[in-house]
Amino acid sequence: MKGWSEIGPLEMVVLSAVTIEGSAYCLPIQRRVQELLGHNVSESAIALTLARLQRKGYVRSAFSDPTRKRGGRAKRMFAILPPGQAALRRSLFIAGTACNAIMASGK
User: How many CB atoms lie within 10 A of CB 39?
Assistant: First the structure.
């Protein structure tokens, strides 16, 4: 499909987490990914995946206003973009179709 770039399993879960969380910084996204996967995922793995998704044009980031809680530092907030929504929908469709085919085969 023209304009669609394949996403890997971790990218699919990170895009799902960003969709669920809305505009969020790395820590809530990491927590949601861990909840979805059922195991620990390092913050660096999430940060690298978010950077890769941003290069692909699937998410955008912007800095929040500085907060006292972070000693006056801003948070980098991530949000999904329409191409990211399309890639996520396509990946979920493909995964669902494969799952249904496996279940129907009885194997």
Answer: 7
